[in-house]
Amino acid sequence: MTGSYPNTRLRRSRAHSWSRALHRETVLTPADLIWPLFVTSGEGVEEPVASLPGVSRWSVDGIVARAREAVDLGIPCIALFPNTPPDKRSTDGAEAFSPDNLMCRAIRAVRDACGSEIGILTDVALDPYTSHGQDGLLDDAGYVVNDDTVAVLVDQALNQAEAGADIIAPSDMMDGRVRAIRMALEMGGHPNVQIMSYAAKYASAFYGPFRDAVGSGGLLKGDKKSYQMDPANAEEALREVEFDLAEGADSVMVKPGLSYLDVIWRVKERFGVPVFAYQVSGEYALIEAGVAAGVGDREALVMEKLTAFKRAGCSGILTYHAPLAARLLNG
Ligand code: PBG
Fold this sequence. Notes:
This protein is of the alpha/beta class. It has one domain: Alpha-Beta Barrel (TIM Barrel). Helices cover 38% and strands 15% of the residues. The protein has 11 helices and 10 strands. An 8-stranded parallel barrel has the order 1-4-5-6-7-8-9-10, surrounded by 9 helices. Helix 7 (235-246) packs across helix 8 (261-271). The protein starts with 16 loop residues before the first helix and ends with a helix. Ligand PBG binds at residues 123, 125, 127, 135, 171, 207, 210-211, 224, 280-281.
């Protein structure tokens, strides 16, 4: 008789909500979220992004309102991406280091309104500023050159730091850019400006809606495979992370998110440093498309996915679902 009952019943701990709460290994809080926001020109402007249902570009005043909303929701950091007007895009992306570009105006306005109540993360790469949509400078053959691009990215990063950015996030995948940016920040009087490197950034098919949002999608010819990583590689991601840490990165990012949980886990296990995931635009759009198609409940789908990032070892997640998730978590 006794032998016909299991010794251990894992279901026992799952029987009640209080017990599930007690046994929960992973906790998601609003403090785990970074909210990416798209900046556009004008005043009082909200432009919905068709391929990102529920996400809009906002003019600087709207960005300030979103930043205040983030503070109220307990979201500690926003990430800014500009939709540069077409006439300000050029082959060399020089608008990236204009002190009065959209990004800098948004940084200053948020800083004025929110002080140090919110962190401001800024993306370093030339794609929102170039007329060709690539992240760096091109040679005659159309190849994105490394070292000359790094020199320009340094100017871009310094420009953002001067405007008041807290976290510089190079997403360009050039070699050696973290060291160059760190040196420039130190020498430029910004020792406390952090670097979160997009260390393992893959040449992914999931960035399409983002490129619509910043207006680079229609301009881009070819792909970014000569600098972004092959989705087949994980050992190489560890090398990217190792170099970026040695070059002075404070934290590292894996991007996209959910299809790369193994990479997040391996980075966390190997280096024990703060790891962030970017749940990218295509991932967001797939959830929204799924909800529209009746696949499941939006809130449940969103929370399950965000919790998975924490379980895999993330310190935090960049996600367009940040305000929804924070609202749910705040009850
Ligand atoms: C810029 C950049 C991209 C994303 C973040 N920074 C696009 C790209 O590399 O083409 C994608 C983010 C998203 O899809 O949500 N280099």
